[in-house]
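Weekly puzzle thread! Below is a chain. First person to post its structure in C-alpha cell form gets bragging rights.
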Amino acid sequence: MSMLKKIIAVGLSSLPMMAMAHPGHAHESSFWTGFSHPFTGLDHLMMAIAFGVLLWSATQRWKVAGFFGLAAAMIAGFVLGQLQVWPNVFAEYGIVLSLAVVATALLMKSNRIFAVATMLLASFHGVAHGNELGQSGHMLQLMLGMVSAMSIIYLIGLGLGAFTQKYLPQGRKIIAALAAILAVIGLA
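Winning reply:
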C-alpha cells in the first residue's frame, strides 16, 4: 500500500472520532467546563447551528419556542443521563438521528414537525453528557454551562439563517449537507 493510501486510510478512519469525540469530557464539573464543551464538538455545533438555520424562516413564535425547547430538551436529557435511564450507546445513536432529522428538515423546508422532532432529539445530547459527566458532582453548574453555550450556538444559527436567506440561496442545502455528512460519519 502506498504512503498516500495509508494516509487516506488513517484520515478516513479517524472521521468518526473527529465527529463525535471531542475534548471536555474530563470528570470535573463547573459552569466553564459545561460552557466550553459544546464549542469543541462538531456534533453540538452542527446540531444547534442547523436548528437555528431551520427556525430562521419560521415565525417569531417558533424561534422563541425553539430557543426554550432546545434548552428544556437538553436539561431533561441531562437529568435522564445522570439517572442512567438509557445507556450511552443509545444516546450516541440519538445524536446521529438528531443530525439526520435536522438535515432532512432543512432539505424539505419543513419548519414545524421536524423542528419539534429535532428539539426532542436534542435531549440525546444531554443524555450522553449526563451519563458521562453527571456523576462528578456540581451537575447544575455543568448543565447550565452546556445549555447556555448551546443557546448561544442556536442564536448564531439564527443569524446564519438570516445570512443564508439573504445572500446564499442554497445556504439551507449546504447546512443540510453538512449535518447529513456528520450524521453518516457518526454511524461509522
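Puzzle host: Confirmed. Bonus trivia for everyone else. The chain has one domain: 40-187.
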